[in-house]
Design brief:
The protein is an alpha/beta fold. It has four domains: 128 residues, Response regulator (Rossmann fold), CATH 3.40.50; 168 residues, Rossmann fold; 71 residues, Helicase, Ruva Protein, domain 3; 78 residues, Arc Repressor Mutant, subunit A (Orthogonal Bundle), CATH 1.10.10.60. The protein is built from 19 helices and 17 strands. Strand 6 and strand 7 form a beta hairpin. Helix 13 crosses helix 15 and helix 18 crosses helix 19. The structure holds adenosine-5'-triphosphate (ATP). The site of adenosine-5'-triphosphate has 21 residues, from strand 7, helix 7, helix 13 and helix 15.
Amino acid sequence: MGNQEKVLIVEDELHALVGLAELVTGWGYRTETARDGVEALEKTQSWSPGIVVTDLKMPRMDGIELLGKLSELKQNQAVIVLTAQGNIQRAVEAMKLGAYDFIQKPVDATRLRTILANASRQRDTERELEITRRKLRDTGFLGSMVGASKKMQQTFAMIERVAPSNVSVLITGESGTGKELVARTLHELSPRKPKPFVAVNCAAIPETLIESEIFGHERGSFTGAVERRAGCFELAEEGTLLLDEIGEMPIGTQAKLLRVLEDRKLRRLGSKIESDIDVRVLAATNKDPEHAVAAGELRGDLYYRLNVFNIHMPPLREHKEDIPAITDAILRDMNVKHERHVNGIDDEMLSRLLAYDWPGNVRELRNTVERAVILCGEGYLSARDLPPGFGSRSVLTTPDPSPNAVQVEVGTTVDEAERRLILKTLESTMNNKTRAAEILGISLKTMHNKLKEYGNVASGNGTLGSEGDD
Ligand SMILES: Nc1ncnc2c1ncn2[C@@H]1O[C@H](COP(=O)(O)OP(=O)(O)OP(=O)(O)O)[C@@H](O)[C@H]1O
């Protein structure tokens, strides 16, 4: 066979150990041996086997403990467990802990050979994927994220480092910098990938509903709770939950959230029963979390619980060198979305994009390019396809009253004047509600409530309470 896969065989019974090692070496694998879990751990560190075949019952450290330690180290070995006859529960336990497969003793050589061949094939595929991922990262891609600048490469490295584990991550950065995209990428690169990713925007949900939205409720637990409803935690079971705009969550709800995170147990509103949960929790905020803690908007203990790792997204103006590549990726998306055939952008447009400060960050770039793709349709985008007045001023930082003025005649009610101002500001931010709320000095929650009043219902793709980009 000539397979050069490295196989570590762990067995306390010397006779069996030697026999297995000879067998496996005879099939063309490189083998090493260990007499218990402790020795096996040392060998995995120094020799990096792709496959570990281990007995369960051993002195010092047994097979189950070894499995746990290996999965903590995240070296992704395929672990094949040897179990005593009739001890199927232990085998099931091992599979739950991430073992690749199990085989009963006395070992059937044909079966072991097949399992090893399959495990080795799977390892090859994983390695190829890893190489492709690394190549892509070197050229500036991580999942759907684009960025070859030093700042983005540092972010990518951090994402790759923390993605496979279960730790909480607090993602900070200005609005539109890609915080939600980071959360999705963390999920995509984690073993939770096949399970749901649920995002909930805490600012977009009225205070009275937020607890039921997050924790779920039983029928009749409050007025309006006509039927039992699963909350975000349950929807994200075994997957990942992003709590967006965490600083906007009411303080009382923060206390309940902290308890859920600490106990890993959940009780729906109005229920007496607690159930175990397995959800990885990520949080995002565009505020400075330390200021939010100092201002009493974010509980300090919750902040420390969520901020096990911090990923800070830089504003686009600090990594403008990524603008061409990000624009390219957006163009490809928009061609598909709007069935257009745009090939690229011309030099003048590119220099205009590079000269601008992008207060709305990548979201603003995305909206600008989308508009241009719709207008242009095919060939190359040119400066003509940019919005009127683009770049001559920053609509978001220094509003110029002339093009964005709101007409308010005497006799207009205060409510109506407010409505016009809110809608006009929203128009100037290309429907970016977070930016508009910032400009108006109101909370995002108030913005959403107002829009609901005006009959403009917030939409989002799979995001509960999302403000939507487009
Ligand atoms: N590095 C990137 N590469 C490609 N697209 C990006 C990148 N960063 C952000 N985007 C895109 O920009 C848009 C805004 O990103 P996202 O919604 O993740 O920002 P955010 O920081 O969560 O914003 P907010 O604070 O307003 O919720 C999305 O369409 C996202 O796909």
